[in-house]
Design goal:
Two copies of one chain form a homodimer. The first copy, chain A, folds into two domains: 1-32, no CATH class; 34-169, Nucleoside Triphosphate Pyrophosphohydrolase. Chain A contains three helices and ten strands. Chain A has helices at residues 77-89, 141-146, 156-169, and strands spanning 2-7, 12-19, 25-32, 36-41, 47-55, 60-64, 67-69, 91-103, 112-123, 134-140. Chain A starts with a strand and ends with a helix. The interface between A and B is large, with 63 and 63 residues.
Chain lengths: 171, 171
């Protein structure tokens, strides 16, 4: 039994009877998602561009690195990262480094986010969607990293990308 | 309009007409989740206990630190962390340090995972649920950290917790 119980704008919810590798048969709920890319935009002066974005699901503004969904499963994640960096942060980058990738909720969703460091930045035109509530900010990489243990920065792609960038750069 | 379109074992799916802070009215889909805790169990010899867990939603085994859902919204996250460390990894810890917390998918779910470092470990009895497919492994913290840029470790709570622990410990 595999049934799509809800087809949404962002996710589809599926209920399926599954035989696990240990032989147990169980009914699982999970969602499919196209995947996403996220970018740490690091300027030459060691500041980053970081967004303050309203998230209704958690009822608050969060600090987030620029990010967005792939147009479809299989879109080149780097092309998506470049598009989102331009649309959300108004930036283009000459130098791109892959930092890793993260499954955000493998217990119930197949979303994967590809993490990038973007350097050699220059301004381009920003294009927000009408349902995106985003302010663009600058802070040093060290200021941003200090907000992780204090729980001021809690968005998981932002936590993972900032820490991975700092480790890769030895900062 | 706010309607629960699916009530599941793990999540409830809600559709709601929302007025955003910028005045835009839009229909949003999101899920509610009780929250969770995750633990990096660091032994005295600088190895960690880490799990190999089958995840049907992504169709593969993932490397994951011990973790699990809160019994209910509002349960003490540290109590949850202690329970999951015992049940999944067969360990108890005398020394606990909060590393931060992560919203895993703030675009469509309110799940938050509280991240801990656990030290001064001792063995206790492991209790797996019948639908948990988990192998317990040991590797050094450095070996685990090296698997993040190579994308062998991709579970987001594991990426965030390992990098935050390494940064806090100066390792």
């Amino acid at each position: 039994m595999r049934k799509t119980v809800y087809e949404g704008r962002m996710v589809n919810l599926i209920v399926e009877d599954v035989t696990l590798p240990n032989g147990v048969v169980t009914r699982l709920e999970f969602m499919t998602h196209p995947g996403a890319s996220a970018v740490v935009p690091l300027h030459d002066d060691d500041t980053i561009t970081i967004l303050r974005q309203y998230r209704h699901a958690v009822g608050q503004y969060l600090w987030e690195v620029p990010a967005g969904k792939l147009d479809r499963k299989g879109e080149d994640p780097l092309a998506c990262a470049k598009r989102e960096l331009a649309e959300e942060a108004g930036l283009a980058a000459k130098e791109w480094t892959k930092l890793g990738s993260i499954y955000t909720t493998p217990g119930f969703c197949d979303e994967i986010i590809h993490l990038y460091l973007a350097r050699s930045l220059e301004p381009v035109e920003q294009h927000l969607e009408r349902d995106e509530v985003i302010e663009v900010h600058r802070m040093t990489l060290q200021e941003a990293l200090a907000k992780i243990p204090t729980e001021e920065i809690r968005d998981t792609k932002t936590v993972g990308a900032l820490l991975a960038a700092a480790r890769m750069l030895g900062k």
